[in-house]
Amino acid sequence: MLSEFTFRLHTNYVPSDGETSQIKQLLIKPQIELLALDEEIQRVQGLLNDLLLNRDTLQETLKAHEALISIPRRLPQDILQEIFLRCLPTDTNAVMNCKEAPLLLGRICSNWRTIVYATPQLWSSIHICMFDSDSLEVPFDLNIDHWTYQELSKRIGFSRTQAVRDWLNRTGSCPLSISYYGRPGLPRWNSTGYEVSPDRIMEILSTFSRRWRDMYFRVPAESSQGLLHRLSADDVPILRSLSVTSANSYTDEPLLDTSTTPMIPPDIQSLSLLPIPNMAMFKYLAETRWSQITRLSLNCDIHGMSTSVKLSTTLSVLRHCPQITHFWLVARNVSEPDEHSTLEGPSVTLAHLRSMTISTVINIQEFLDCLILPSLSSLAIHLIQALFENDVLPLFINPFISRIGEQITSLTVDCSNENSQEYLRRCMSYMPLVRKVHIVDYEWFTMPSRQFARRHRTDSNYLLDDEILKMLTPANDVPTASVWPDLETLECDVDAVVSMKRILEFLEARNGKADVGIAQIKRIKLTLNCLIPCMEGDDARVCESRIAKLREDGVEVDISWAKIGGIHSLSAWCGIETIGHQEW
After folding, report:
1. S-S: 497 plus which of 140, 451, 462, 531, CB 3.0-4.6 Å?
2. Which of 21, 38, 69 is the last residue of a domain?
3. pLDDT tens digits, residue range 217-226?
């Protein structure tokens, strides 16, 4: 609308009385037109609303009818069951949580729920996490008082115990894969001494022992109340894998006793005893031929046994394992001085051994010299140097790693002592063909019993820093002189004190260099220390662009900053990561 006052609009001009009357007269016609437009909009809006309502009604009808003929609805039950089985986790047992299969599948519709609950294979694996509701100590990651914690944990514990029973009752006759992670509590005392509540989960599990196939126990020794002790090999006829790790214990009672008939059948394929409960079990292991065993984990810290006897007995065990492919040895307790330090028996040839992990505080050079390992390619050695004289990096490991160094393609390195970088440099010189490097903390080597949540680990001795990564970065002028030219995977489970600039230089220097003998990094997984600054602004955009280019070239880049927290103490996922860890 044009008027003689157009040029006065949007100014601070104050009209006179005559001009005010003139403006009011000018607005009469536009106001009438505006009312007419509003009425027309209401009429058209009503028509549009009717059309939208009709459209929505028709669309709802169409969707409902299309759902009747949808492909998932028409799939035969056996196909659905196969799809459901593919939804189960592949590297761990199924977790008792409605966010994962099989419980999640039963919440989709009544038909699926019927099929899920009628398919025993879906329930044949389970991860159980329990905790001591009578504990006097509230987990530090729960911001609640003691009374609230007790009430909450009792309710969760009761419902979870009933859920375990219901879950296993759905398994039909299927072989069972079970991991039981029991959180230890504090000791409770009465007038007669130590008092232990019965472990309801162990009681439930024992009733299904004839269908045990793959079993993982990480529970306090006192909680078993002898249930495992009463089982024999006849009670576990299809047992294939057994892992028994004693969690934080307040009694001397072993979790597994073999003073009578051992529960371990001679045809078992995977065995982990951390620790070996007693000398009787150690003797049984050394005298039995384990023709089928491929994975063996032993903690030979038995009270009263000398070092030479420990290692001689371990060699005897290995002689009876002709098919072994993975061996894990823990010897962390200092023994009494040996009267006879020479190990008994000839050397042991382990033709199929591919992976070996050793965590020791004692000199095992003679033990290592007795091992002939033509197929060894994966090595992890943890030397507890704080207990060695003068805290000097032990030299006994040199002959071994120099002898087998050129076979090693996968190396796991501990970062928890001051000489870790020296050991890593030594490995660089002795092991030129390494393709995978995994940096861990000391607890990785002992399968920690106190790790109840998936929390990121920190350590004051930072092994991976800019200096180490620079050593692994090929020089532009002489790329063929690079350390570990075949390196393809670098993973760090602890805080890495390394800059994003150095990481990108490392990755880009190894990208597209196959013609000069430098392998491309296929996977890098780092968690950076919280002190490493995050990139911002233009630097962040450039960094993201460079990472995107690396990913386009096939590099899997997983870089994050350390965070506090993780899985909740009462979560059904507690302990699940340690079960997978036992499978190397």
Report:
1. 462
2. 69
3. 888 766 555 6
Query: What domain range is 496 assigned to?
Result: 408-448+456-564
Tell me whether residue 53 is in a domain.
yes
Query: Which H or E element spans position 381?
Result: strand 378-383
Domain-embedded: residue 400: no
Give exposure, 246-269, as e/b (b: 16+ Cβ within 10 Å): bbebeeebbbbbbeeebbbbeebe
Domain count, the chain: 2
Rounded to whole angstroms, the Cα distance separating 409 from 518 reads 15
Q: What is the pLDDT of residues 415-450, one digit of tens each?
A: 766 677 888 888 899 999 999 999 988 778 765 333
Sequence-separated contacts (24+) of 400-404 with Cβ below 8 Å: 400/365, 400/368, 400/369, 401/426, 401/427, 401/430, 401/431, 402/430, 404/373, 404/376, 404/379
The answer to whether 367 touches 315, Cβ cutoff 8 Å, is yes
Calculate the CA 411 to chain-centre distance: 19
The H helix count followed by the E strand count for the chain is: 15, 18
Cα separation, 201 vs 215, in Å, equals 13
Query: Taking the model in full, what pTM does it have?
Result: 0.78
